[in-house]
Design goal:
mainly alpha, 332 residues, Serine Threonine Protein Phosphatase 5, Tetratricopeptide repeat
Length: 332
C-alpha cells in the first residue's frame, strides 16, 4: 500500500471516529435537552442500553428519562428510573426529589417524605425542598410536621408566597384559624393575584362566621380564576352568587365538552362509572390525589402533555382552565 493510500485510510478512520463522537454527543444532548419527551425517552434509552456506558453517564440518563416519564404523568415508570439512577449514584439529590414528586402523585406519602428528606441531605437547604416535604406531610395528615417544614422554607425565603399559603392550610387543618388567616394574608401581600390564597382565606372566614369577609374573598378569587368552583359554591352557601359565577358556568360547560370529545374514551369523566381504561384515573377522583393544590399544575404536566397511551393532542392554557373548572365541579 502506497503512502497516499495510507494517508487516505488514516483520514477516513479519523473521520469515522469524529462522526461517531459527534453522534454520541447528539444522543447525550437529546437525552438531556431534547425538545420533546419522546426524543428524550428514545435517546436516554439508547445510552442506558449500551453496556459500555460509564455508570455516571448511565445514572444521568436514567434520571433524565425519569423526568421525561414524569412529564407524561407516567409516574410508575418514573419511579423505576429514578430508583435505577439512585442505585448508580447514591448521592443524587435531584433523583431523590424527582422520585419524591412521582411518589406523591401516586399518594405514596411515606416514600415521598423519605425521598424529600434525602434530597435535603444531598442538595442542602433549598426552600423548595422544604415546601415539597411540608406538602407531603400535610397530605399524610401530619399538620405539625408540615408547619415546621413550611416555617423553614419561609425562613430561607421570606418572599415565598406558596410556603405561606401552604402553611395556612396546615394551620387550618390544626384548627388554628387565626394563624391560617395571617398566613393567607401574607401570601396575598406577596402576590396580590394569588387566587388560591383568597379562596382558602375565604373558607376560614366562613368557618369563623365572618360572612362579609368570606364573600369578598370568594368574589376576588373567582375574579382572578373563574375555575375555582369552590369559591362559587362558597358564594352560593352565603347567598351571594356574585357577578362572575356565569363565567364559571361557561368554563364548566366548555370543559365538559372538551372532556367528552378527547378524554372519555379512556377516563370516567362523570360523577359515576368506571374508566374504560383501568389504568386511567376517574376524573372525580383527581381532587383526592391533589386535595390542596389547584389542579392546573398536575393537569398541565399530565393532560396537556400526552401520556404514552393518550392521543397526541395539546391543550392551551385557556383550555386547561375549562378542564380545571369541570373537574372541580364534579365534587360536592
Amino acid at each position: 500500500m502506497g503512502p497516499n493510500a495510507k494517508r487516505m485510510l488514516g483520514a477516513a478512520a479519523v473521520g469515522l471516529a469524529l462522526t461517531a463522537a459527534s453522534a454520541r454527543a447528539d444522543v447525550l444532548s437529546d437525552c438531556q435537552k431534547g425538545k420533546s419527551g419522546g426524543v428524550r425517552l428514545r435517546a436516554c434509552g439508547q445510552i442506558i442500553e449500551k453496556t459500555s456506558t460509564p455508570a455516571a453517564v448511565r445514572a444521568d440518563a436514567y434520571r433524565a428519562r425519569a423526568e421525561a416519564y414524569a412529564e407524561r404523568a407516567a409516574n410508575k415508570e418514573a419511579i423505576a428510573d429514578y430508583t435505577e439512577a439512585i442505585g448508580l449514584k447514591a448521592d443524587d439529590g435531584a433523583a431523590y426529589y424527582g422520585r419524591g414528586q412521582a411518589r406523591l402523585a401516586l399518594r405514596q406519602t411515606d416514600g415521598a417524605i423519605s425521598d424529600f428528606t434525602q434530597a435535603i441531605r444531598y442538595m442542602g437547604n433549598a426552600p423548595g425542598l422544604y415546601v415539597a416535604r411540608g406538602y407531603a406531610q400535610l397530605i399524610k395528615g401530619n399538620a405539625s410536621e408540615s408547619i415546621a417544614d413550611f416555617t423553614v422554607a419561609i425562613r430561607l425565603d421570606p418572599k415565598n408566597a406558596s410556603a405561606y399559603n401552604n402553611r395556612g392550610l396546615a394551620f387550618r387543618k390544626k384548627g388554628e384559624l387565626d394563624s391560617a388567616i395571617r398566613d393567607y394574608s401574607a401570601a396575598i401581600t406577596l402576590n396580590p393575584v394569588y387566587a388560591l390564597a383568597y379562596n382558602n382565606r375565604g373558607y376560614v372566614f366562613e368557618a369563623k362566621g365572618d360572612r362579609q369577609a368570606a364573600a369578598a374573598d370568594f368574589r376576588r378569587a373567582l375574579s382572578l380564576d373563574p375555575s375555582l368552583v369552590g369559591a362559587k359554591k362558597g358564594l352560593k352557601r352565603l347567598g351571594e352568587p356574585g357577578m362572575v359565577a356565569p363565567e364559571t358556568d361557561r368554563l364548566i360547560s366548555q370543559g365538559r365538552l372538551l372532556a367528552e370529545r378527547n378524554c372519555a374514551w379512556c377516563h370516567a369523566i362523570g360523577r359515576i362509572g368506571d374508566s374504560p381504561n383501568p389504568r386511567a384515573p376517574r376524573w372525580r377522583d383527581l381532587q383526592k390525589r391533589h386535595p390542596i393544590q389547584a389542579l392546573r399544575d398536575p393537569l398541565s404536566r399530565g393532560i396537556a402533555r400526552p401520556h404514552d397511551e393518550m392521543p397526541k393532542f395539546e391543550l392551551s392554557d385557556s383550555e386547561i382552565d375549562t378542564i380545571v373548572a369541570y373537574i372541580n365541579s364534579l365534587n360536592p
